[in-house]
Amino acid sequence: MGSPSLAAELMMKAALLLLTACVGALGAPDTRFSCAECVDEMHKLGWLIKLGAEDIQSYLLANYCPTVEEQEFCQEHLAQYYVGMLFSIVNHYFVDGAVHVCQTMGVCDARRYTCEECVEGLEWVKAFMLDPIMVAEYTIYLEQNFCLSDWENCKEGVKEYFPAMHNMAMEKFLIPVEICNNEPVCGADPPTKPPMF
Fold first, then answer.
1. pTM of structure
2. DSSP-based helix, strand, coil % in the chain, nearest 5
3. Do residues 39 and 102 lie in contact, with contact meaning Cβ atoms separated by under 8 Å?
4. SS3 call for 112
């Protein structure tokens, strides 16, 4: 038996190098966003909406109500009720349905949470919130679950006003980069903790 040829020796070294790289990759810590982290972020979205409710309402009063024929009605009722409708949608689809949203994003057990992932995730949420099919779904959900039977013209009002108000509010307030820049993962200070007694 003679010595291995140069080509065979190079093949062995290449195979050994590839095997070493594969073993190293398998032993590296997982740097992907976990499903639990994604679900947590969906739950935080509910709080962000509640924190921004007054600003959203003021924005709609100033920018949406002047665009409708019944401006006084809008100022007295629509802008206020939109915030309640938005709470209802966020709680149903993004808080109670957080796992489902994360699954549609493909992140459950798939990625680690980084600033870039925060922006990507909220871009997905924004697309989900503004998709015309989902807005139609939200409208039906609100007619069936938000409007009480004794609320006169509620279902009709939801059909007529909700989609335009929703699109206007989401375009103004659901800005992924701005939201993520307020999160610790993107360098912001973590929230302060209440004193422990």
1. 0.59
2. 75, 0, 25
3. yes
4. strand
Q: What is the DSSP letter of 2?
A: -
* Residue 3 dihedral angles phi and psi, to the nearest 5°: -75, 150
pLDDT over 80 (residue 30) = no
Residue 165 · residue 64 · CB < 8 Å:
yes
Q: Both tokens of residue 7?
A: 């080509």
Q: How far from 158 is each of 10, 49, 64, 120, 179, CA to CA, in Å?
A: 71, 19, 15, 30, 28
In degrees and rounded to multiples of 5, residue 37 shows phi and psi of -65, -40
Contact 45, 91 (CB under 8 A): no
Q: What is the pLDDT of residues 117-126, one digit of tens each?
A: 889 888 988 9
Terminal alpha carbon distance of the chain: 81
CA separation for the pair 81, 87 (Å, rounded) = 10
- The DSSP secondary structure of 38-58, one letter per residue, reads HHHHHHHHHHHHHHTHHHHHH
Closest CA to 115 of 37, 63, 51, 191: 37
Question: ∠178-99-102 over CA atoms, to 5°?
Answer: 45
